[in-house]
Amino acid sequence: MVSRNFADVVTQRILSKRSQLVVGLDPRTDRLPEELLREPCADARAAADAVVAFNRCVMDAVGPHAVGVKCQVAFYEELGCAGMEAYAATLRYARDRGLIAIGDVKRSDIASTASAYAAAHLGHPDGSSPRAGDFIVDAVTVNPYLGSDGVRPFIEAAAANGKGAFVLVKTSNPSSAEVQDLDAGGAPLYERVAALVEQWGRPYCGECGYSLLGAVVGATFPKELVKLRALMPSTLFLVPGLGAQGGRVQDVRGAFAPEGLGAIVNSSRDVIFAWERSPYREEFGLARWQDAVAAAAADVQQELWRVTH
């Protein structure tokens, strides 16, 4: 097992940067600044090149303010092979910038297939590199629906390679309640999943007291955040849903321990397209879109720090 623990790395970054912010790199080609688009930008290769250029500019802008970035792989898969090359290029640049890279891939399967997924995104459980390391990240998101068979390979690969995994527990979308809130023997299903994640992850805690196995818990459910923080004291939270999905900074306070640790919060559209909305539209506009992105990231960073301390 490697010497470093993913949760320790995250905690160190939070403290050194005074930031709990993760920026979601979910680029929509129809919203990219025109200066990055070839004329015309109709083919997948041109669109993928524009995405890489945009992501690099965003990472340059948010680098001082964020601990990491989260790439939702769907926006890259949509562009086919060129898009997945853009995904790989984005991950490489994140590493170059010293940013934690989270692959939002929501993978799981029966054990043998889950092992292949884990190796592709986190490395082999013996610590060796996969044949192609294009999609290696610092952490991935994992679907728990197949039970421990689908999660264990990610835990083993993460432990061997200094990586992490975040299991979906209570997601930010409104219809999550259709499944996640189902009664499971007197408690909602998401609480049962939370108990399993805490149990699975406890042997893999770092010096910080948190495990390399984390949980995805949405900012749009602040009461559930409080409940889950109490149920999962050793679990690092990844909190999506801030901004465009309706989550507010004050809503995520319950995800954190009293010292402002234990969670990282993702904001995507509100940061990476900041020049489209007030007050950044008036102050910077499209001509200074990178400055708008940097300012939005700084504002979220500072507000999160203030609310959690």
What topology emerges from the helices and strands here?
Blueprint lengths: L5 H12 L3 E4 L19 H19 L5 E5 L1 H4 L2 H17 L3 E8 L3 H12 L16 E4 L5 H14 L2 E7 L6 H4 L8 H13 L11 E5 L4 H10 L5 E6 L20 E5 L1 H4 L7 H4 L5 H19 L2
Helix pairs in contact: 2-4, 2-12, 5-6
Summed up, what is this model?
The chain is α/β, with parallel strands linked by helices.
How would you describe this structure to a colleague?
The protein has one domain (6-303): Alpha-Beta Barrel (TIM Barrel). Helix 2 packs parallel to helix 4 (80-96), helix 2 (44-62) crosses helix 12 and helix 5 packs parallel to helix 6. The chain contains twelve helices and eight strands. It has helices at residues 6-17, 44-62, 74-77, 80-96, 111-122, 148-161, 177-180, 189-201, 222-231, 269-272, 280-283, 289-307, and strands at residues 21-24, 68-72, 100-107, 139-142, 164-170, 213-217, 237-242, 263-267. The chain has 309 residues and is of the alpha/beta class. The longest helix has 19 residues, at 44-62. The chain starts with 5 loop residues before the first helix and ends with a helix.
Give the number of domains.
1
| Helix residue percentage | 40-55%
Helix run count:
12
- Full CATH superfamily name: Aldolase class I
Provide the structure class.
alpha/beta
CA-based gyration radius? 19 Å
Give the N-terminus to C-terminus distance in angstroms. Answer: 34 Å
Poorly predicted residue ranges: none
Report strand order across the widest sheet. Answer: 1-2-3-4-5-6-7-8
Tell me the total number of β-strands: 8
Name of the top-level CATH class: Alpha Beta
Strand content: 5-15%
Question: Any idea what the CATH architecture is?
Answer: Alpha-Beta Barrel
Name the shape in a single word: globular
CATH topology grouping = TIM Barrel
Order of helices and strands: HEHEHHEHEHEHHEHEEHHH
